[in-house]
């Protein structure tokens, strides 16, 4: 008799999530679901808990048509229910006081720790080069983007991430301030066709245990 370990629900969601590029163009996700999705996704970790992610959720059909041109004519930009543009805020440290004051209110830290964290964060982050701040924001945006995709699957929706778009044109079209960096677009909606399967490299090719 062979004993098998039941697949956890999280493991199932991870394996069921695929990159879907064909969507039901007439299906519209309720805005309340999109809002719930983003709130839940913000449980993702971030550098010093500064939460540098910002979102532009594009649902308007005409705007999606414009965005399709900016995004190398990728069909899913227009047919998905919404496009979640994940942006990175390189001035994330400006929110440090609000963040750590809230931590005190919630009982997560005391006043002395709050003051120390605010002072240290302002001193460190405000003096970092812009390129380093962009790297931090990009890394943290990657963490929350994965959470968005897994949570979307858990809610019955499908997604695909897109890094292939003209970021300068995007920033200009949506009048982004200099501190906001476009990082990735996430199409979300109802699949109109199954996603392709994809292989993975063997563990021996990607990991070394020492």
Tell me the overall shape: globular
Rounded to an integer in angstroms, the radius of gyration calculated over CA atoms is: 20 Å
Instruction: Compute the average pLDDT.
Output: 95
Tell me the distance between the termini.
35 Å
The CATH superfamily is known as: NADH Oxidase
Q: Low-confidence runs (pLDDT<50, min 5 residues)?
A: none
Strands in their spatial order, largest beta sheet? 1-2-4-3
> Level of helix content?
40-55%
What amount of the residues lies in strands?
A: 5-15%
Furnish the topology, listing elements before pairings.
Elements: H1 9-16, H2 31-41, E1 53-58, H3 61-70, H4 75-79, E2 82-89, H5 96-105, H6 111-125, H7 130-154, E3 158-162, H8 167-173, E4 180-189, H9 203-206
Antiparallel strand pairs: 1-2, 2-4, 3-4
Helix pairs in contact: 2-7, 5-6
How would you concisely characterize the structure shown here?
This protein is of the alpha+beta class and 210 residues long.
Your description of this structure?
- The chain is of the alpha+beta class.
- The protein has a single domain (18-190), classed as NADH Oxidase, CATH 3.40.109.
- Helix content is 45%, strand content 14%.
- It is built from nine helices and four strands; from the N terminus they run ααβααβαααβαβα.
- A four-stranded antiparallel beta sheet has the order 1-2-4-3, with helices on both faces.
- Helix 2 (31-41) crosses helix 7 and helix 5 runs antiparallel to helix 6.
- The longest helix is centred in the last third of the chain and has 25 residues, at 130-154.
- The mean pLDDT is 95.
Keyword list:
alpha+beta; single chain; 14% strand; 4-stranded antiparallel sheet; 210 residues; 4 strands; NADH Oxidase
């Amino acid at each position: 008799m062979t004993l098998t370990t039941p697949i956890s629900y999280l493991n199932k969601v991870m394996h069921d999530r695929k990159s879907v590029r064909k969507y039901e163009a007439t299906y519209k996700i309720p805005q309340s679901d999109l809002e719930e999705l983003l709130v839940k996704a913000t449980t993702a970790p971030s550098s010093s808990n500064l939460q540098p992610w910002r979102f532009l959720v594009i649902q308007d059909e005409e705007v999606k048509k414009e965005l399709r041109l900016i995004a190398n004519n990728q069909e899913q930009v227009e047919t998905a229910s919404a496009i979640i543009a994940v942006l990175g805020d390189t001035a994330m440290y400006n929110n440090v006081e609000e963040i750590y004051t809230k931590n005190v209110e919630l009982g997560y830290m005391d006043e002395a720790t709050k003051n120390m964290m605010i002072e240290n964060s302002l001193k460190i982050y405000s003096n970092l080069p812009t390129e380093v701040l962009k790297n931090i924001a990009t890394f943290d945006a990657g963490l929350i983007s994965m959470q968005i995709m897994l949570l979307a699957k858990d809610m019955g929706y499908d997604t695909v991430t897109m890094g292939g778009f003209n970021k300068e044109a995007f920033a200009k079209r949506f009048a982004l301030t200099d501190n906001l960096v476009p990082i990735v677009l996430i199409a979300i909606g109802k699949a109109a066709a199954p996603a392709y399967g994809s292989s993975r490299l063997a563990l021996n090719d990607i990991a070394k245990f020492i």
